[in-house]
Amino acid sequence: MLKKFVLNGREIPVPIPLVTLGQVVSWVETTLAKSGQVITCIILNGKSFDDLNQLNVKGNIKLSEDTLLEMRLESPKDLLIQSLETIYDLAKVVQANIKQVAVDCWKFQGEKSSGTQLTIFLGDLKLILSLLDQVIGLAELFPTDTTAIQGIYALISSQIESISREHAEKNWREISRILLHRCEVSIKDLSAEIEIQHIQALSQGALTNMDVPASKNVT
After folding, report:
1. Residue 213: which residues within 8 A CB-CB, separation 6 or more?
2. Helix 114-139 / helix 147-168 crossing angle, nearest 10 deg
3. Cα(57)–Cα(69) distance, rounded to whole angstroms?
């Protein structure tokens, strides 16, 4: 039977008999979670549940006094802010690297490390699109206009397709032109728009630290 666990970085005593992971999840959702909050992270004995849908088959895992269990509760506003901050940081990295990638593509045309750098760059752009998908979905819950973000999303998606097509044809100099004349502009616009969205999200009172009952800080 579980005696305590960590929730949002704080140690929480368990005052009722809970013997399975599913029972703990249910108790947290019904007793400790505020309106709109969801469990976004579960770590059991050092192992993270990457897909919380696994609970459908692993909810009956037995827990004991020695079980090490950590959870995180977050609201849609928290997730929105975190996603915006991640996109902003990643966009700044992409913006800082884009000229060098373009120069290498033009100069080395796939030789040396230019091909690898381009692959990494495209991976970063695809990650940005994935995060933008999440932001657009979360923003629907708030009075937020994502028209500009959706427009930039469409541009970056088109640019990825163009670069991939030119890459298949080994048109390295055309890739360089796309990077400098299209991608760089889109990434700059994205950074500016994400900054605006971040300010708006903060003004809506998004939480940065979850309030959970009773407890002591875990060090």
Report:
1. 12, 32
2. 150
3. 18
Helix extents (H) in 59-212 = 76-108, 114-139, 147-168, 172-178, 184-203
Domain count, the chain: 2
Give residue-wise pLDDT tens across range 43-83.
999 888 766 666 655 678 899 999 999 999 988 888 899 99
Boundary-marking domain end, from 74, 91, 120: 74
| Shared-domain flag, residues 89 and 68 | no
Q: Output the pTM of the full model.
A: 0.71
CA 172: distance to chain centroid?
31
Q: Is 68 in the same domain as 135? A: no
From the list 81, 110, 107, 83, the residue with the least C-alpha distance to 203 is 81
Which range marks the domain in which residue 31 is found?
4-74
pLDDT digits (tens, 9 = 90+) for 16-33: 999 999 899 999 999 999
For the stretch 148-157, pLDDT in tens is 999 999 999 9
CATH code for position 48: 3.10.20
- CA-to-CA distance for 212 and 146, rounded, in angstroms? 32
Q: Which residues contact 185 (CB under 8 A, 6 or more apart)?
A: none
